[in-house]
Design goal:
about 350 residues, alpha/beta, TIM Barrel, seven-stranded parallel beta sheet, two-stranded antiparallel ribbon, globular, binds coproporphyrinogen III
Length: about 350
């Protein structure tokens, strides 16, 4: 197995700086579009044969050092009684938003084997197809980001309803966070039992909170999830717009902090206190390609020089119009620039 990704997660010296990309299996890739056709992404994710195929196609097309389970953060919510669809170019739409204490009380507990058995079967099939070539990353949405979709009912920039519930109805809020924390622990625990080699917790939208509110309303739940996986597999914590929350995110116990491009990665290294750092090329640079992309890659590597635990990635997901060749060039140049001489 190519262990560079796990070596970096564990702060061992890897053979080269590992690379993988969020949304590496997505619409920018012709093989993905061919499998997807006109179907919603959830239909691919519910079919272990297709989901494993698109996950492994991406690894092979790009030459990355890790695969990621093909699923979506919304999928386990259905088992809790949340009905949703994912609208193309919009995002998740929830039919029955969760807005009151009664709504929270009506949520069911997730039974992973019964409710998301297809995800677990997808892990089995993906591991089989990867055949120990590279490790597989499992993932879940974090409670805050999932709550955001559940409360708003659709993608939202400022998460006003969600934050209003947090401030005005703390009992409902904490009840919702407890239910989601329980779900995420069960879900990730089962992914680990099925053999994922690492997990990433996506708290994509929590960057809209102040550090004080993060501490009051969110951090203990994230910490409980991280604690439940301690000593089992490396834990990566991703959050966009997180520069003001870095200290808080490090405090939740993740092994690797994944940051976006809005801050220099050198700032993340200073805050990471011995933990790994994942990131942080601007996804638009990967789309633009050329000299600007090469300079961006060089800067991320330069600022990470001599640091143990760097995982090279984009600051957020691969954009739809990105030429796959640009991502292959990023992988090649990161490997070439960081290869350890024997
Ligand atoms: O290789 C991979 O990373 C694919 C697996 C994956 C998907 N979603 C499949 C998907 C992963 C890791 C996710 C996580 C996810 N889903 C997040 C967290 C990461 C982040 O971007 O912050 C979030 C917030 C979602 C919710 C979601 N699902 C959104 C906002 C969208 C985009 C809608 C659009 O059309 O642009 C989706 C759809 C989705 N999930 C796609 C993929 C490949 C693209 C649409 C498609 O293929 O039909």
């Amino acid at each position: 197995m190519n262990t560079s990704f796990l070596d970096a997660c564990n702060r061992r010296e890897p053979a080269h700086t590992p690379v993988w990309f969020m949304r590496q299996a997505g619409r920018y890739l012709p093989s993905y579009r061919a499998v997807k056709g006109g179907r919603p992404v959830t239909e691919i994710a519910r079919d272990p044969e297709l989901s494993s195929q698109v996950a492994v196609d991406a690894v092979e097309a790009l030459g990355v050092d890790a695969g990621i389970l093909f699923a979506d953060i919304m999928l386990p919510l259905e088992g809790m009684g949340v009905r949703f669809r994912i609208e193309e170019n919009v995002g998740p739409i929830v039919e029955n938003p969760v807005r009151t204490g009664d709504d929270v009380g009506a949520l069911r507990a997730l039974d992973p084997e019964a409710d998301v058995g297809f995800v677990l079967d997808g892990i089995d099939a993906t591991l089989q197809k990867l055949d120990d070539s590279v490790p597989l990353i499992g993932f879940s949405g974090a409670p805050f980001t999932l709550a955001g979709y559940m409360v708003e009912g659709r993608p939202s920039r400022d998460l006003e309803r969600t934050k209003r519930m947090m401030y005005n109805d703390p009992d409902a809020w904490h009840g919702l966070m407890r239910a989601l924390t329980r779900m995420v622990k069960a879900y990730l625990g089962r992914q680990v039992s099925h053999g994922v080699h690492a997990v990433q917790l996506f708290d994509s939208w929590v960057g809209c909170l102040s550090p004080a509110d993060y501490r009051t309303y969110v951090s203990k739940y994230t910490r409980q999830i991280m604690d439940s996986l301690e000593g089992k597999v490396p834990r990566i914590h991703f959050c966009a717009n997180s520069s003001s929350l870095l200290g808080e995110l490090v405090g939740t116990g993740a092994d690797v902090i994944s940051v976006d491009w809005r801050m220099p990665i050198s700032d993340a290294w200073k805050a990471a206190r011995g933990r790994g750092v994942q990131g942080n090329l601007d996804p638009v640079l990967a789309l633009a390609g050329g000299a600007a992309m090469r300079r961006g890659v060089a800067r991320v590597l330069e600022e990470s020089k001599g640091r143990r635990g760097h995982i090279f990635s984009l600051g957020h997901g691969v954009l739809k119009e990105t030429p796959p060749e640009n991502l292959r060039a990023v992988v090649r140049s990161v490997h070439a620039a960081t290869r350890r001489r024997a």
